[in-house]
């Protein structure tokens, strides 16, 4: 059951025509080196009945290259079981950690609070930095959690405000929270709020996907992504999802198992083979790290 039921999301929905207007482009693509939060006003969430199907129909017609990727994968399913505050807390806990390590910290965090239903601002504020450190949360990350909880407790943020705010205003408010930057905002909007037209222009996985999709010589810069993905509007979130899937499909196959214990390297060829296996493992790990956004956030089909 989507947590949005009964939360008055209809008040936040705008007409699809208002989302499809093209903003003017800057004449200077290098005007700012900081990733731009080029976001639209929210429409129907992707978790709404028929919205993913509408997105796929639009993307197929708008971009023949993307249609090929769509045909190669099952459609996404967007659903988030958590309310915005809970999702933001989870996002902070998962930052800069490998998936398994982050899942372990998150599990201990829930146990410390007494369950998912207790992931509330006042409960987070009641935890000391030492409490959090004992379950593997760094002091810096603890300060991020406390800053988020304080902004909720003071009324600067609330779940209702987060749901109903337009994308640009929400981005400005969320980046006021310590530890939440443009990338975290994009992931939150796509996978927690299921907003349809968010382009994570700085995400390496999406950028590499666009490179493969259009056969580009180099990974496009964040400043180039807006123009390259313009035809995906008003469903750039779904286009980005398919870019993650595309780059995932390009991941090298797992290397052969390496025997436990040091091998007897009597020939140069054996040593070379081991080096190649190690290189394959490193490549595979780098791809896994790029697609971690797919694992980190709930509601991803």
UniProtKB/TrEMBL annotation:
Xref: PANTHER family: DNA-3-METHYLADENINE GLYCOSYLASE
Family of this protein: Belongs to the alkylbase DNA glycosidase AlkA family.
GO cellular component, one term: nucleus
Keyword field: DNA damage, DNA repair
GO molecular function annotation: alkylated DNA binding; DNA-3-methyladenine glycosylase activity; DNA-7-methylguanine glycosylase activity
GO BP term, pick one: DNA alkylation repair
Pfam families xrefs: HhH-GPD (PF00730)
Region described as Disordered: 1-43
HhH-GPD domain segment(s): 93-248
Protein name per Swiss-Prot or TrEMBL: HhH-GPD domain-containing protein
Listed CDD domains: ENDO3c (cd00056)
UniProt source species: Oryza barthii
């Amino acid at each position: 059951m989507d947590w949005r039921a009964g939360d008055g999301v209809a008040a936040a929905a705008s007409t699809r025509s208002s989302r499809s207007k093209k903003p003017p482009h800057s004449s200077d693509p290098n005007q700012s080196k900081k990733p731009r939060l080029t976001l639209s006003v929210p429409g129907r969430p992707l978790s709404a009945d028929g919205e993913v199907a509408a997105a796929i129909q639009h993307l197929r017609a708008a971009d023949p290259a993307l249609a090929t990727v769509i045909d190669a994968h099952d459609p996404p399913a967007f659903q988030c079981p958590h309310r915005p505050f809970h999702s933001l807390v989870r996002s902070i806990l998962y930052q800069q950690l490998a998936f398994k390590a982050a899942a372990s910290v998150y599990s201990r965090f829930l146990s410390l609070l007494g369950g998912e239903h207790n992931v509330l601002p006042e409960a987070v504020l009641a935890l000391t930095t030492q409490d959090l450190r004992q379950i593997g949360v760094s002091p810096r990350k603890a300060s991020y959690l406390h800053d988020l909880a304080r902004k909720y407790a003071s009324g600067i943020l609330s779940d209702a405000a987060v749901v109903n705010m337009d994308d640009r205003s929400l981005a400005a408010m969320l980046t006021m929270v310590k530890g939440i930057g443009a990338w975290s905002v994009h992931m939150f909007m796509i996978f927690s709020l299921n907003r349809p037209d968010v382009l994570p222009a700085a995400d390496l996985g999406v950028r590499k996907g666009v490179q493969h999709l259009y056969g580009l010589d180099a990974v496009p810069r964040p400043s180039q992504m807006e123009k390259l993905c313009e035809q995906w509007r008003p469903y750039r979130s779904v286009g980005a999802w398919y870019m993650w899937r595309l780059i995932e499909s390009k991941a090298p196959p797992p290397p052969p198992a390496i025997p436990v214990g040091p091998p007897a390297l009597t020939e140069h060829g054996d040593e070379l083979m081991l080096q190649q296996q190690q290189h394959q493992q490193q490549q595979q790990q780098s791809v896994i790290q790029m697609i971690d956004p797919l694992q980190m956030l709930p509601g991803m089909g």
